[in-house]
Amino acid sequence: MFYKYNLEDIRDRARAAFIGMAIGDALGATVEFMTATEIASKYGMFKEIIGGGWLRLKPGQVTDDTEMALCIARAIVKSQGWSLRAIADNFAVWLKSRPVDCGDTCRKGIRAYILKGQLESPPNEWDAGNGAAMRLLPAVLFSVPDGELLNRYIIEQAHITHNNPVSDAACLCLGQLLHMSLCGAEKSRLKRHVEGLVSRFPAFAYVPYRGLATGYVVDTMQTVFNWFFRGASFEECMIGTVNQGGDADTTGAICGMLAGSYYGMDSIPRRWIKKMDTRVISEIELTVERLITESPAGRMM
Fold this sequence. Notes:
Layout lengths: L6 H23 L6 H8 L20 H16 L4 H13 L7 H13 L20 H7 L3 H13 L5 H18 L4 H14 L16 H14 L3 H9 L5 H16 L6 H6 L2 H16 L2 H5 L1
């Protein structure tokens, strides 16, 4: 999957993808576990970063989606390369820090690493949550545009906690979409790629959209695909996604990385960036620069 691109364009899209992920996380966390009807009744159209929600967050505070992605990014930067053990070590430190939230499957996998040094969870038909997909962006950025490296990194990081063919399929498709988008692919090309996923795994079909936005990775990706392809801007994609409710921090985070990589930094509303935790945004800015510089794209320039 090689497209004509320039490194500065990739950098811009990569920044927008990571910042977009954090924004989607912080925006969606407020309405996580609410239904679309409940959101509409309380907020009308929910579209501001205000914190609160069941986790009682501060405005602009992120959750496990962004925090686990940063764990992966820090491991790559510190190791000056891909190190699965360094990633797992960071997950372990993060879990011991008592994070604001952590999904059950992620917690189980990380605890297995802490207790047994296990870097790959055993296959499990029930581990088809969205926890591996929500955090994969650093693997995408560090591998761009090398598809073989992408697939290897994505599956290795996923299997620390989620070893499931449906989760794997979602993660690979999302990672490949992000590579394409970072390198300038049009939405029509991205849509055809999703159609390929649906042909192999019909459960991911999102037309007609069923309106489910649970933590099941199929529901998550259906929601992201529906609103990403329906939206005409970063903001439209994000508002549609989080107003669906359910696992809104994660659907928001995943749609944020995809919409950010597609539309670029200029598309992200300044009012949202201003509401974010400045420490998180600063770390993302520095980390993205390192990941892209050390990626195949960066080394080729």
